[in-house]
Amino acid sequence: MLIVQKYGGTSVANLERIRAVAERIINYKKQGHDLVVVVSAMAGETDRLINLAKQIMENPPLRELDLLISTGEQVSSALLSIMLHSFGYPAVALLGYQVPIYTTELYTKAKIKEIKTEKIKDYLSKGYIVIVAGFQGVTETGDITTLGRGGSDTTAVALAAALGADLCEIYTDVEGVFTADPRIVSNAKKLKKISYEEMLEMASSGAKVLEMRSVELAMIYKVPLVVRSSFTDAEGTLIIEEDEEMEKVVVSGITYSRNEARISIYGVPDRPGVAAKIFRPIAEKGIIVDMIIQTSHPDGKADITFTVPRTDYKQALEIIEKVAKELNAERVEGDDKIAKVSIVGAGMRTHYGVATKMFETLAKHGINIMMISTSEIKISCVIDEKYTELAVRALHEAFNLGEELFVKEEKIG
Amino acid sequence: MLIVQKYGGTSVANLERIRAVAERIINYKKQGHDLVVVVSAMAGETDRLINLAKQIMENPPLRELDLLISTGEQVSSALLSIMLHSFGYPAVALLGYQVPIYTTELYTKAKIKEIKTEKIKDYLSKGYIVIVAGFQGVTETGDITTLGRGGSDTTAVALAAALGADLCEIYTDVEGVFTADPRIVSNAKKLKKISYEEMLEMASSGAKVLEMRSVELAMIYKVPLVVRSSFTDAEGTLIIEEDEEMEKVVVSGITYSRNEARISIYGVPDRPGVAAKIFRPIAEKGIIVDMIIQTSHPDGKADITFTVPRTDYKQALEIIEKVAKELNAERVEGDDKIAKVSIVGAGMRTHYGVATKMFETLAKHGINIMMISTSEIKISCVIDEKYTELAVRALHEAFNLGEELFVKEEKIG
Predict the structure, then answer these.
(1) Could you cite one Gene Ontology molecular function of this protein (chains A, B) (predicted)?
(2) CA angle, corner A165, sides to A159 and A167, nearest 5?
(3) Given this model, what pLDDT does residue B403 score?
């Protein structure tokens, strides 16, 4: 098999751990697999480099910043390659420009445009283990770019897609995807498998195990993904296309996010174009709005409530207060002490009563729901931040996720 | 003017010093000069990276080692570029492969084959300050190489030659080239100017201010070099082609080296081919022999004494002991407690009595001369290591170097 493996920053945090990674790779190699290994920077290194740049100026030029921070993966990939040599295995470390991995010119959040696979295939055919520096690419003019946070996952999945790999393993410091955050729910269970769509919804609603972009890429190119720990031999979670078995699972997991804030604008004239007037200046600042709720009153006025990333809360609030004046709105309110709790499951498509059960469960625990949003396979509720853990635990229990992995159908109301 | 500047590791050791470097560059820029700036890695970084690799294995694969250690200059060049931006000056950092600086494939000690100057010239024409990561290059297949110790000096001089720069300034932690090591000779004087040849002889005989390779390169391409400190505004030493004024200076400086060891092989048959038998196995191990002295006895036997770098002493001694047996030599002796003291000066070509004065001075202080070697503009004596400082001081005084820069002719015996 051709396997692409990706090791995160904690997995290569020091030489001892890089040794353990090398031993794992060699075990695969001994079984006859071809290996392409993507590495992140040693834990803390990217932040250290960004901090150096920020000490010079708050907004360093992004081309130079990428040149700087791409060294993190260069160091770790070289060290892993040397480690493999020390065990007598031929290895070669390749940087983004050496593969090459061509990207757009959007420094610090470039997107992969094309991967040339000839060099990698050539090394593989000669028996080499190929190490690829994650997170980085190159523009057509030879400038170094980086892919943004979680970029090494994207590198791994994109390489797996381009190479037609049989499997893409993402090694990290958790054992896989859980029914809920194990730090909150003690009997959270590791999922054996989950569909791309479910993983996407879980990632977008707060599960941090994988970046959304890499899951999207895996879904588009049908790359079988495995998330697992580099510290144990435990099997991880397989992320693949939805199958019949998955459809039977109504709720696969509970996620939460405390990274959002809510802004409400009350008593705006309810006429066409108002929403655009509110959201255009927000969008122009690059602030991403997540949930939006609009309610109309009989008096021709409307209230609009929406959420933004908590880091953008202050800026968004200032913008909205200006807009509110222009629109003659009654008042503006904001709250950055909120949490979004979500339930995710492919089975929701074919099962009814799931939302009701969620709302009832929260109500039973005295948790007020401020906002609701739904997708085909996800229901999210915004609640007071202080109830986060309580809500996650209650929902985890209500949907029987801790007891057994597959909730029996008859239990769903 | 187009000026190439090179800043060493101590000059960019931290953000504060990088700021000072940026300010110096901006001063030049304000005067209307075009600037290409070569930087070394932040002090200690290259050693830190090499040490990481050596912790994994004693002899790491050299391609991967170069990939690893080239990150040092990548970081410092990016930081300097960001620093210039923070002052509002457009700058761009270029890596070896981006210039590109093509080298041979001899990893860790590659030689520059060709520098493409189009990209640099393009940035200069747009008003950019161009920062180039020193010490690194790229092979034609896109692999990163490094140029060996002092490689950033070579990068700077090679760039100056390729660009036809008007001046190449080497900024370091000393104020220039001195008549002797100021740590040993308190009244050592900084030389205002010196010829390439003298600088070469001084570098080869122990002065550490510049790597020989970069001086050779400057000499071949007639690049005017300046060595000066990045910590003061003092004028440095100009290294240029020999002129009439220089010819009048009999001795420009006294140098010493404690990096050598002596090996003697006594009583070898004095017949053709013996020297080759002795030195071939040494050369095959990559050990460089500096001085060689052979003396023949009436009985058809000869003694051969030579020096090798002290780091190679043990290995060379083992080889010679083997060779001595094969040749039926009488005995082998070694000594790694020696020093080489040299006097260098362009005026030696036209002045007599210089060597005599040197030998007499050493004799007057009771210092025994073990070996002598001479070139057109240099005389070196190997002495007991413990007399190093005494010899340097005595010669410095004998040739009046501390009193005034240009020794008067009538004083030479």
Answers:
(1) ATP binding
(2) 105
(3) 59
Query: Looking at A154, A173, A192, which one is the last position of a domain?
Result: A173
CATH classification of the domain holding B83: 3.40.1160.10
Residue A262 has pLDDT above 50, yes or no: yes
- A9 annotated as a binding-site residue: yes
B66 annotated as a binding-site residue: no
Distance CA A61, CA A122 (A): 36
Domain interval for residue B327:
244-413
Asked if the ipTM is above 0.90, the reply is no
Alpha-carbon dihedral B198, B199, B202, B208, rounded to 10 degrees: 170
Give chain A positions within 8 Å (CB) of B78. Answer: 53, 64-65, 67-68
Domain count, chain B: 2
Nearest to A85 among B57, B68, B79 (CB): B57
Give which of A140, A68, A147, A156 is closest to A110, Cα–Cα: A147
Residues of chain B neighbouring A73 (CB-CB closer than 8 A): none
Are residues B14 and B150 both part of a single domain? yes
Average confidence (pLDDT) over B44-66: 97
Q: CA of B83: which chain A residue's CA is closest?
A: A56
Strand duo A378-384 + A371-375: pairing: antiparallel
In order, the DSSP letters of B340-395 are: EEEEE-GGGGT--SHHHHHHHHHHHTTPPP-EEEEETTEEEEEEEGGGHHHHHHHH
**Residue A109 labeled ligand binder:** no
Minimal Cα–Cα distance from A360 to chain B, Å?
55
In terms of domains, do A145 and A279 share one? no
Is residue B113 assigned to a domain?
yes
Integer Cα distance of A155 and A41 in angstroms = 13
